[in-house]
Amino acid sequence: MTPHLLAPDWLALGGYFALTLAIGAWASRRHAGSDELFLAGRSLGPLAVGFSLFASNISSDTIIGLPGAAYSTGISAANYEWMASVVLLVSLVGVYPVLARARVSTMPELLERRFDTRMRLYLSAITLFLSVMIDTAGTLYAGALVLTTFIGQFTLGQATLAIALFTAAYTAAGGLRAVVYTDVLQALVLLVGASVLAWIVFGQYGHSWSAVVARVPHSHLSLIRPPGDPGVPWPGLLTGLPVVGFYYWTMNQYIAQRVLAARDLAASSRGALLAALLKLAPLFIMTLPGAMAIGLLPPLRHADDVWPQLVLHYAPHGLVGLMLAALLAALMSTCSATLNSAATLMSLDFVQPRRPHWNSLQLARAGRVFTVLTALVAALWAPQIVHFPGLWIYLQHVFAYVASPLVATFVLALMLPRMGPSAALSGLASGHLLALVLFGATQASWLRIHFTVVGGVLFAATLLLSLGWMAWLGPRDSVAADSPRARVVRREGLPRLPRDVWLLGALVLVGVGLLLWAFA
Predict the structure, then answer these.
(1) What does the DSSP assignment read for 417-471?
(2) Number of domains the chain contains
(3) Among the listed ranges 80-94, 146-160, 407-421, which one has the minimum average pLDDT value?
(4) 95 found inside a domain
(5) φ, ψ dihedrals at 351, nearest 5°
(6) DSSP letter at 44?
(7) Number of helices and strands (H, E) in the chain?
C-alpha cells in the first residue's frame, strides 16, 4: 500500500509543529540562566511533572518498539510499562524525600555528596553514553523509520538529522521549561492518537475479545511467561526488570530532572503518581495492537514495521496525520528531554567544576552548545541501529548490562551509610567489568541467559563485589555516621509525603494487580 497524506493530514502535522514552536518561543522569553535552562527555576507543579514524566518516557522507540516486540514475542513486553508504576511508587517513598532535602541539580551530584567527585564523573559519563547512544539515537531512529515510510523523499539519515535539529532548536532556546510544557501537549496528542489507532485495530475483530483470542496465539496474550520464553520470562520479570526500571525512573537524569525541577516534594510525588497511572495505559493502546496485527497483516520482514503498517492499512484518510503527530509528539518529547539532560550533565558535572568563575548565563550558553552537539552525534549514530535485530532488543539489552551495576551502587549508597567512596567505586567498576565479560560470553554463544535475567545477576554480583571491597579496604575507607557524606542519606529529618499520596499509591497498586490478573 502506497503512503498517501491528504490535506487534513498535512494540516494536523503543520498545526502540531506550529504549536510546538510557539510553546518553545514563549518559554524562551525568560532570561534563562542555568537554573532556568536546566531546572525550570524549580517551579514545576504536579500536572507538569506527571505529564512530562510520561511523555518523556513514551517515545517513538516505544510506539515502534512495543508493538514490534508484541508482534514477535507477545505482550510480555508491556511488563516494562506496568513495572514502571511500581518502581515510581518505590522511588517516591524511598528517594524523593532525599532529593527534596538535598536540592541537587543532577543525580551524579547526589552521589558526589554521598561519595566523592570520582563517583560523580563516573556516573555522569555512563549516563551521557546511555542518553546519547541509546535514548536519543533510538528515538531518532524510530521516528525516522516512520517518516521514511510515509514521506519517501527522505532517507533514514536525512530524516534523523532533520528531526534532531528541529528538536534541538526549541530545546536550546527554551530549556527545561519549554521541554516540559511541550511535553504536556505531546502527552495529550500521544494518548489520543494511540487510543484512536488501538480502537480501530480492535474494530477489525468486531471489538470482540473472543475473536482476538481465536486468531492470536495464546502465548502472545500473556504477561507471565515461562523461563524459556524469548520475550520477558518470569525470572527476568522478578529480577532484571525492577532493577533496570529503577535506574530508568530514578537515576536516569532526563527522567530525574523533572523531579528535581518540581517546586516541592508534594508536587514531585503527586506528579509521579499521575505518571504511574498513565503507565498502565500502554498495554492497551500500544502493545495489544501489535499482537493483534498477527491476525491482520501479512508476514512482515521486520517487527519494527508493525505500527507503520497498521496506520497504513487501517487508519482512515484524514487520521493518518493525527497518528504521525502522535509519533512526532512522542519522539520530540523524549528527544528534547534527553538533549536537555545531556547538556545539563556536561555543563554542571564537567564544565562548572573546571570553570568555577563562570556565571549562570555563561553556563547556559555552554548548555545550548552542548544541546546541538548532542543532537548531531545521536543523529549520526541513529541510522546504524537498523543493523540490530530490533529496536526494543537494542534498547533493553544495553540497559540491562550497563545500568544494573549502577543501581546496586545507588542502593548501597542509600542503605549503607558506612560504605566509603573507594569501596563503592571499585565495586561499581568490578560490576561493569563483569557485565563486559557476560556480554562477550552471550554474544559468542558460550553462555545462554536472557538479558532480563542478566540485570538481576549483575545487580546481585555488584552488591557482593562492593561489600567485598568494603571489607578489604576496612576502616580507612569507612564513612563516619556523623559525617556530611552519611547525613546526605540519613532518614531522620526528611520531609514527609502528603497523606493523599499513600491513598493514591494504593489505588495504583490495585490497578497493577487487576492488570496482572486479567492478562496472566
Answers:
(1) TT--HHHHHHHHHHHHHHHHHHHHHHHTTS----HHHHHHHHHHHHHHHHHHHHH
(2) 1
(3) 146-160
(4) yes
(5) -80, -50
(6) B
(7) 26, 0
